[in-house]
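WARN no homologs supplied; continuing
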Amino acid sequence: MSEPIVLLCDNKRRDLPGLALIAHHLEAQGKRVFVEPIEAWRSVVAAHRPAVILFNHLLATHLADYSERLASMGVKVAVLPNESLLYNPDVMRFNSRRYKENANVDMYFCWNDHQRNALLENGYDEARTEIVVGGNPKFDFHFTPWNKLYAPRKDRFAGQRPIVLFCSNFCLAHFENLPPEKAD
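OK structure emitted
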């Protein structure tokens, strides 16, 4: 059987469905996959002896330092961000930077070409890090066959009450009060 792959889950409500789908596809290819909470980052090497550990970022000092330690042990480090719809160039630069020079990333999975370009502008080197644009696995739940997992309630839109959409992503909300030339 193949060497294990560990997928670290930062937030179970936001990230676990996408990681479970990735695990499903990898297991269908004969890989052994373990999904663990991010808080277990130090213990997964002893518990599973992985060939690869997937992080959602290496922006924290302790994770960047640990990635270097993993490299010295022969464990590959991959990154798949859990947030990457970053329209503001400054936010994109922040989230795609090499936080510490010693951070070791063998493979970086990007949601889009904008993130890939930001990684390259921020010092990632394709000779050292394989950069792959693969999209966001959470979006797969919007399409067949995975959208069948979440059956809508039959009474969801019954009645005459208005339907209100609440947006919980407010990264651009401050643009509403800016003059149009600044917001552009």
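The mean pLDDT is 85.
OK
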